[in-house]
């Protein structure tokens, strides 16, 4: 059973990101403040539930949250500032857009940078412990997946509709065959042989 609150503050915001390990597309973060009486038996870390359940949860979270925001940081910026900084930036941007100013922020994982004027705590595997982080993980994942489905239409040979930009065998085979697109992260090791030098 996921916990409702960590800090004791009513306006506690949960934040999480999706797409850190992908070879293409943005890293996407969501920030969510849930009402005190929010309950949902299906909601969990987005990696633990099926795509169908995530899509069912998306409108429920959007309807019941006190407020939520989602933010993308795209591949050009990821290449410029690195994926960790881009992930934190995406979370900061989502928090910044919230219509209600949070009193406390709980963050999935162990890395975050101070957000101005709001105390925070990082929680390892927080998306499997707290409802608001789980809700943020579901929104980040579903919004990012929908974005990847959209750009799939432009470059169907990489099958982003299925792999969402993650480094699957199929995605890497397509990079070998067709090269990279404007959506690929150039600072990432896109193919394992990139690190092997011919003798």
From TrEMBL:
It catalyses: Endonucleolytic cleavage to 5'-phosphomonoester. It is found in: Cytoplasm. Its EC number is 3.1.26.4. Its main location: cytoplasm. Its cofactor is Mg(2+); Mn(2+). Keywords: Cytoplasm, Endonuclease, Hydrolase, Manganese, Metal-binding, Nuclease. Residues 10-199 form the RNase H type-2 domain. Endonuclease that specifically degrades the RNA of RNA-DNA hybrids. It is an enzyme of class 3 (hydrolase). This is Ribonuclease HII. PROSITE patterns: RNASE_H_2. It comes from Pseudotamlana haliotis. GO terms for molecular function: manganese ion binding; RNA binding; RNA-DNA hybrid ribonuclease activity. The gene is rnhB. It comes from the Bacteria. NCBIfam families: PRK00015.1-3 (NF000595). GO terms for cellular component: cytoplasm; ribonuclease H2 complex. GO terms for biological process: DNA replication, removal of RNA primer; mismatch repair. Pfam families: RNase_HII (PF01351). Manganese or magnesium. Binds 1 divalent metal ion per monomer in the absence of substrate. May bind a second metal ion after substrate binding. HAMAP family: RNase_HII_B (MF_00052_B). A divalent metal cation binds at residues 16-17, 108. Belongs to the RNase HII family.
């Amino acid at each position: 059973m996921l916990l409702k609150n960590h800090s004791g503050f009513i306006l506690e915001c949960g934040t999480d990101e999706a797409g850190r390990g992908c070879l293409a597309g943005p890293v996407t973060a969501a920030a969510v403040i849930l009402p005190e009486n929010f309950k949902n038996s299906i909601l969990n870390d987005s990696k633990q539930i099926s795509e169908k359940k995530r899509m069912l949860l998306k409108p429920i979270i959007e309807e019941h949250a006190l407020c939520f925001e989602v933010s993308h940081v795209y591949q050009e910026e990821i290449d410029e500032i690195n994926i960790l900084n881009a992930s934190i930036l995406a979370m900061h941007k989502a928090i910044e857009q919230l219509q209600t100013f949070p009193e406390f922020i709980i963050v999935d994982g162990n890395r975050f940078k101070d957000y101005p004027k709001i105390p925070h705590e990082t929680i390892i595997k927080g998306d499997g412990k707290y409802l608001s982080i789980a809700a943020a993980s579901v929104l980040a994942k579903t919004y990012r997946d929908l974005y990847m489905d959209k750009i799939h239409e432009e470059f169907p040979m990489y099958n982003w509709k299925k792999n969402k930009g993650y480094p699957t065998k199929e995605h890497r085979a397509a990079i070998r065959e067709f090269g990279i697109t404007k959506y690929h992260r150039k600072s990432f090791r896109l193919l394992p042989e990139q690190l092997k030098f011919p003798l």
